[in-house]
Amino acid sequence: MARSSFPIAALALFIGVIAVFPTIAQSIGVCYGMLGNNLPQPSDVVNLYKQKGIKAMRIYGPDGNTLNALKGANIDLVLDVLNSDLSNFASNPSAAASWVQKNVQAYSGVSFKYIAVGNEVSGGDVSNILPAMKNIYNALSSAGLRNSIKVSTSVAFSVIGTSYPPSAGAFSSDASYMTSIVQFLSQTGAPLLANVYPYFSYTGNPSSISLDYALFTSPGTVVTDGSNHYQNLFDAMVDVLYSAMEKVGGSNVGIVISESGWPSAGGTAASMSNAQTYNQNLINHVGKGTPKRSTPLETYIFAMFNENQKPAGIEQNWGLFYPNQQPVYSINFS
Asked: Could you give the C-alpha distances from 131 to 88, 151, 259, in angstroms and in order?
């Protein structure tokens, strides 16, 4: 998770048009972070996913206990390749193949859906993303799994350089590496995994972005971009990403929201009420797609638990549940 900004001019203009959309089924998952010393056993976590009707999970690296618990659970899985492994996998196809064999092929009965080759990779490691993706993809192909498991990478919104209006969305000059990644996704039929946080955009620019716009509670259109009308910041940010991909040959590439959420304590606008409002509205909204694309958005909420080994403040307060498995606030996943 990384802070990201979304500079917007003219957000003070509210147009009193309330958008009405049909209800469309959506796919909602939850990210299962493990940076806590008081978290439930993985088998209990998987049972909690089942009890709450959460149909998909993301984990941030291979964990044998979790993978064993997921066998036969019918829970779709996003499995991350650790950023620290990218250099080795980029230069060593056999290392990538060994990883696939050890962490994917060895767990028949687990519903692997995506391999996220790195999460919010930055610095010199960005040059390793695409070659590592290719080697993981080739390893899955050799195992006969390329049609059932898609290979992507998870990016922060900070890869964006131009963000207003949404149709002008473009990758930053520092993220020129995204061009070849997007083209590879286009060739392989995989989506881009994107971490999208209206929370950080709002708290980084509260004088220009209203809390209602960030929480999906604006009474009407806030931003008009040609024929598209934006009533919430989440849609605008996703459409910026779509526009950026279109500009580099990725008009056919979809987006999976690999993280989004709102903290319940520890910082500006971080409250149980705001977190509940954002996450419930997110769940209710993503099946409708965005003004640019009506395709339902597969979305993973960050995160399952409050994690006490993260830095103090908001970082410890993204969870939907306490470590004792009691809800931080009420959420309906259906």
From this structure: 10, 12, 24
pTM across the whole model: 0.93
User: pLDDT digits over 168-188, tens only?
Assistant: 999 999 999 999 999 999 999
Torsion of CA 297, 196, 279, 185, to 10 degrees: 30
Tokens, residue 86? 């990218």
Residue 269: burial class (beta carbons within 10 Å; 0-12, 13-18, 19+): middle
> Which two structure tokens, joined as six digits, stand for 216?
């999906």
Pull the structure tokens for residue 273. Answer: 């009420």
Q: How close are the terminal C-alpha atoms of the chain, in Å? A: 25
Residue 200 and residue 5 in contact, taking contact as beta carbons nearer than 8 Å: yes
- Tens digit of pLDDT for each residue in 289-321? 999 999 999 999 999 999 999 999 999 999 999
Handedness of CA 237, 248, 131, 88 (dihedral sign): negative
Spatial contact of 5 and 202, defined as CB atoms under 8 Å apart: no
pLDDT at 198 over 90: yes
Is residue 322 helix, strand or coil? coil
Q: Which of 249, 144, 234 is nearest to 187 (CA)?
A: 249
Closest-CA residue to 57 (of 73, 77, 40, 39) = 77
Q: Which residues are catalytic?
A: 120, 259
